[in-house]
Design a protein that fits this description.
three-stranded mixed β-sheet, mainly alpha
Length: 178
């Protein structure tokens, strides 16, 4: 039980970080490894990567990976992975929503860097506020989600970087996030 509590704490810590966490998968991600990929905010996989939650083949249901998979994949796709224990390819993982991008093994680092560059080019305050809202609103009803989204947007609009972004848009120039 203690081991699973520690695992859950680590998975929640990934979600609570104010920066996006990107899984870079180059081999096999199974059981808790597949869970970690699902809990990361984004994932990039080599075309040769494989994914499974295969504990069911050992008469164990992958209960803790079930939490991450059921919240990040469609229900039927997650359940199929959990009850069959079958491995899926990187392309299948992308189609099911487990990974965002697939790259050739020798282009994996470059693909991760492209994703990182796109994110770090944005103001960190907007990314942190957006990530927090993204996960909070998923756990509430739609009315509460919109209320939280409106409050988050209003607070974000008061940030100096947001004001600079709006002014840059009006002036038709690139924003200066310094």
């Amino acid at each position: 039980r203690k081991l699973f509590d520690q695992c859950a704490a680590m998975m929640l810590a990934v979600q609570r970080l104010p920066v996006p966490v990107i899984a870079r998968v180059q081999g096999i991600a199974t059981a808790a490894g597949c869970q970690l990929v699902a809990m990361c905010d984004l994932a990039v996989a080599a075309s040769t990567a494989k994914f499974a939650v295969s504990c069911v083949n050992l008469v164990l249901f992958c209960s803790t990976p079930c939490v991450a998979l059921s919240r990040n994949l469609g229900r039927k796709a997650a359940f199929e992975m959990l009850v069959t224990g079958d491995f899926i390819s990187a392309e299948e993982a992308k189609a099911k929503g487990l990974v965002n991008r697939v790259a050739a093994p020798d282009a994996l680092d470059a693909e991760v860097e492209r994703l990182v560059a796109s994110i770090v080019a944005k103001p960190s305050v907007a990314i942190a506020a957006g990530k927090g809202l993204f996960y909070r609103q998923l756990e509430t009803g739609i009315e509460a989600a919109y209320a939280d989204a409106g409050k988050t947007m209003a607070c974000n609009m008061m940030e100096p970087s947001a004001l600079e972004g709006v002014q840059a848009f009006i002036d038709k120039r690139a924003p200066d996030w310094r």
